[in-house]
Amino acid sequence: MMSMDDTSNGPPSELKKCVEAMDQVSKMFGWLGAPLPFLCALMIVYEIIMRTVFNRPTVWAAELTGMMCATCYFFGGAWNIRIDGHVRVDILYSRFSPRVRAGVNCLNFVLFALYILAMLKFIWPYIIQSVYLNESWHSLWDPYLWPLKIIMFIGYSLIFLQGLAQVCRDFHFLLKGRGL
């Protein structure tokens, strides 16, 4: 029987623990974002009733719905990567062996990482500026914009870290032919 600390045949236990921890963080944020589409739908229904039945439209519903949808997207993005729920063109990919798919995933990670890291790099100065200036939407409701920018940064960070966890799995599978 092999112990988890034996790295000659199995994955390093620290790597496995890190990957599993990232899975749990992604799951937690996914669960935080999961109810938001339903709340958005309720807000839209409320806005429609207020506008059409009572002729009293809200000043906040459209912007808050957009913020909540963005939060749902960013909080759910990492979990979507974890469960392999993203859209891909399966015409060729589905015909590949599991090991070749793992290799393709590892190559795709390079482009994925470049995009996500660029987004993180370019969002950060805008966050600092937004917080410093107390930037708002410049609308009638006029909510602050920096909380949404921080959510975007957190979301992209989570998406990158979950992508890194997935590429660790795929690279291990590519090399060893078995899961992490």
Radius of gyration: 21 Å
Given the structure, what is the number of helices?
Answer: 6
In round numbers, the mean pLDDT is 90
Order of helices and strands: HHHHHH
Describe the sheet with the most strands.
Answer: none
Tally of discrete structural domains: 1
Helicity level: over 70%
Overall outline: elongated
Question: DSSP strand (E) fraction?
Answer: under 5%
Which helices and strands occur, and which strands form pairs?
Elements: H1 13-33, H2 36-52, H3 61-82, H4 90-93, H5 98-133, H6 146-176
Helix pairs in contact: 1-3, 1-6, 2-3, 3-6, 5-6
Structure description:
This protein has 180 residues and is mainly α. The protein has one domain. It is built from 6 helices and no strands. The protein starts with 12 loop residues before the first helix and ends with a helix.
What are the key terms here?
mainly alpha, 180 residues, disordered N terminus, single chain
Quick structural summary:
By secondary structure, this protein is mainly α. Helix content is 73%, strand content 0%.
